[in-house]
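step=predict obj=Thymidine kinase n=196
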Amino acid sequence: MAQLYFYYSAMNAGKSTSLLQSAYNYKERGMQVALFTVAFDNRFGEGKIASRIGLSSPAHLFNENTHLYNEIASLHEQSPLGCIFIDEAQFLSKAQVQQCLRVVDELDIPVLAYGLRTDFQAQTFEGSHYLLAWADKLSELKTVCHCGRKANFVARLNEAGDVIASGEQIEIGGNERYVSLCRKHFTEKTGFNRDT
């Protein structure tokens, strides 16, 4: 029985590396897979999932208008799929998470979604919110703060490398724009939860 999995973390926990390794395992066993990533993040090239350690693979793109169920059903009709992998799953819409549930329930294909739990203001992204609520299995991929504690928050940096606490929810960037922090250091640097 297929299930929807959500692997979540702060940045730099190896989400893309884990996704690419799992996809490789399916392919090594002779199974077809489909990989998806968000269209507006082209830091590593368009239609590509890449990890910081050098692994990469071509991927289908999704945006706010992509009907994932229809696209996956069409791919599955062409060649039976053993698994679906979604990188940057925090950018899925509520409807797209529901479409992933249909892929699992109606097409009986496992969906493994990888993404951030929260943004730089400690708010869940829409995709993460519904994946946390509806996924059959949740798994946290861990990374560490500079102090050695588990990092479960992402802070945004300005050009000078200082933590900032305001701005648009979505701004693409890597280590030059974001840093993963434990709750203590996130609170110290952003003032999060100081008003209560």
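step=describe
Residues 15-28 form the longest helix (14 residues).
step=end
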